[in-house]
Specification:
The protein has about 290 residues and is α/β, with parallel strands linked by helices. Helix content is about 30%, strand content about 20%. The protein has 10 helices and 10 strands. A hairpin with a 2-residue loop joins strand 1 and strand 2. Bound molecules: adenosine-5'-diphosphate and magnesium ion. This is Phosphonate transport system ATP-binding protein. One of its GO terms (cellular component) is membrane.
Length: about 290
């Protein structure tokens, strides 16, 4: 019933797009993220178990699963914010299970993040919000002197890229949700990230805007070769915009495959009550905390 987790082959280019890197390069590309046998437990209660994940340059991977299935925890484990109790996690050349403090900061500066609530500073201008992305470069900027002209130019170019350069001087709070998420994406790009993690980035947007934000994330993956991991709870959006789908239920990875090869039935298992299928769900799904 559940889809067997296939060993993930080096990816082919996304459908309907012309990647800047050639197919041959993609095939030989090393994954920027490589997770094997990941287990995360809070108070000895497993919330992720035996999870494998690869992210290759240029691809957008959808992370699916019901609320509480472990999507955010999986993302946190990629930036050292989740207690990994077994398995290996490699991100952009860093081994997260064996990482010094300084290296952890370096790693976080290489991971661009986008959140459901945008997490902008509402009263600051759009441009300044984007500029704060440069602060992730581990103390590279002396704030007493302000941001450099080069930083400002880059921030403006990124705003242009995401289609809202004309809003640069407006306070972030004056923008619509879709525009705010574009600012957040520009801010993530300001970091020059090697990967992008987007945790439910379109959950607060209406469907039309949701599509355009996902289209932007896909463009970034393809044009910049930056892999994007995006958690979604709307299946049609995952089908339309992702190259691959990884599906969690009760902390276990029940689905992993190319989006084009997964049927609706393959994905339905993610939204069945875990209690109805104890064998597939395992212990993680049964150990509930009082919510
Ligand atoms: N800091 C934490 N302490 C204890 N339990 C947590 C913590 N973070 C997440 N969990 C639990 O882990 C499970 C997965 O949560 P989460 O990763 O947020 O799921 P999702 O993002 O798919 O909704 C949930 O049961 C949640 O209650
Ligand atoms: Mg979540």
């Amino acid at each position: 019933m559940s889809v067997v987790a296939q060993p993930v082959a080096p990816v082919a280019p996304p459908v309907n797009t012309a990647p800047r890197i050639s197919t041959a390069e993609l095939r030989t590309a090393l994954p920027l993220v490589s997770v094997r046998g990941l287990r995360v437990a809070y108070d000895e209660r497993p919330v992720l178990d035996a999870v494998d994940l690869d992210l290759f340059p240029g691809e957008i991977v959808a992370l699916l699963g019901a609320s509480g299935s472990g999507k955010s925890t999986l993302m946190k484990s990629l930036t050292g914010f989740a207690p990994v109790s077994a398995g290996s996690v490699r991100v952009a050349g860093h081994d997260l299970t064996n990482l010094g403090r300084g290296e952890l900061r370096g790693l976080r500066s290489e991971v661009g993040q986008v959140f459901q609530q945008f997490n902008l500073i509402p009263r600051l201008s759009v441009l300044t919000n984007v500029l704060t992305g440069a602060l992730h470069g581990a103390g590279a900027i002396n704030l007493v002197g302000g941001f450099s002209t080069a930083h400002r130019q880059r921030a403006l170019a990124l705003l242009d890229r995401v289609g809202i350069a004309h809003k640069a001087k407006d306070p972030a709070r004056s923008l619509s949700g879709g525009q705010q998420q574009r600012v957040a994406i520009a801010r993530a790009l300001m970091q020059r990230p090697r990967i992008i993690l987007a945790d439910e980035p379109v959950a607060s947007l209406d469907p039309k805007l949701a599509g355009s934000v996902l289209e932007l994330l896909r463009e970034i993956a393809v044009e910049d070769g930056i892999p994007v991991l995006v958690s979604l709870h709307v299946l049609p959006l995952a089908r339309e915009y992702s190259d691959r789908i990884v599906g969690l239920r009760g902390g276990e990875m029940l689905v992993s495959g190319r989006t084009s090869s997964l049927s609706a039935g393959d994905l339905a298992v993610l939204y069945e009550s875990a209690d109805e299928d104890p064998d597939a769900a395992g212990e993680a799904a049964h150990a509930h905390h009082d919510a």
